[in-house]
Amino acid sequence: MTHPSTHAPGTTLSEAGLPELDLSAVVAEQTDPLLFATVSGAHLYGFPSRDSDVDLRGAHLLPVAGLIGLREPEETRTRMWGRDGVEMDLVTHDLRKFVRLMLRRNGYVLEQLTSPLVAHTSAAHAELCAHVPDVVTSHHAHHYRGFAGTQWRLFEKSGELKPLLYTYRALLTGIHLMRSGEIQAHLPTLAAEVPEAPARLPELIEAKAAAEHEVAAVVTEDVRGEVERLHGVLDAAQAASGLRAETDALGALDDLVVRVRLQHAQG
């Protein structure tokens, strides 16, 4: 059986063309602890353009009173701001909601959790990463299959390069995960490691760097054939995968959520 590996928190952001992100002011503004924040989106996927937003994703920790009182808990928070002409946004979920998403075969949150582009971390972040091997199943292929389908429909409507690259990225991430157990979201790396990756990818990635909404200079029927072929490769990779079919991590993650919240409540 294969087991998912994760990127170690703390990798510098410069490799992704980003400055070191000082979130100290943002963290200080939070009414509740921020457990982690990592860079997601095009910078994580390896095809940002000069005008790409910086997408930060993570988890915060609500107090016990916020969960058991009469008011609706603020389980998801969004904050947007600008820095040197670059738009940035931080979206976080309360720890309980984030872990529930982990248990729903949601590849997106696992990519956020294991992103090597770490802006803020904690011991709880490291613990969550350690549980990723217990969460990933062969059914995560469904997430990547569905996400690729959504992005392909966006490409058909707009003709833009961005959703086409997202389509390729989702399918290749799913194939790589089914075969190796590794969550790899970086498209240039996937292009080199997945033998079935289309040869045109480096050229498309280079074109995307010029503008966020660049029109794809491709023949739609050609890329349609590539995408359909990759769907078949993903189906075959899932059928042959050594990943478990179901997770047994509920108990351990439940203990983690309760323990972390109580530790913070007790100071």
- Tell me the series of helices and strands, N- to C-terminal: HEHEHEEHHEHHHHHHHH
Q: Low-confidence spans: pLDDT under 50, at least 5 residues?
A: 1-11
In CATH, the architecture of the largest domain is 2-Layer Sandwich
| Beta-strand residue fraction | 5-15%
How many domain modules?
A: 2
Average pLDDT: 88
- Percent helix, as a range, is 40-55%
CATH superfamily of the largest domain: Beta Polymerase, domain 2
Could you give a short account of the major beta sheet? Answer: 5 strands, mixed
Structural class: alpha+beta
- The Rg value, from CA coordinates, equals 19 Å
Number of strands: 5
Would you tell me which CATH topology of the largest domain applies?
Beta Polymerase, domain 2
Chain-wise SSE layout:
Elements: H1 24-29, E1 34-40, H2 41-45, E2 54-60, H3 64-68, E3 76-83, E4 86-94, H4 95-102, H5 107-114, E5 118-120, H6 123-130, H7 132-135, H8 140-158, H9 161-180, H10 187-193, H11 201-208, H12 220-240, H13 250-265
Parallel strand pairs: 2-4
Antiparallel strand pairs: 1-2, 1-5, 3-4
Helix pairs in contact: 8-9, 9-10, 9-12
In words, what does this structure look like?
There is one protein chain. Helices cover 51% and strands 13% of the residues. With 267 residues, it is an alpha+beta fold. The protein folds into two domains: 142 residues, 2-Layer Sandwich (Beta Polymerase, domain 2), CATH 3.30.460.10; 101 residues, no CATH class. Strands 3-4-2-1-5 form a five-stranded mixed sheet. Helix 8 runs antiparallel to helix 9 and helix 9 crosses helix 10. It is globular. The N and C termini lie far apart (41 Å). The N terminus is likely disordered.
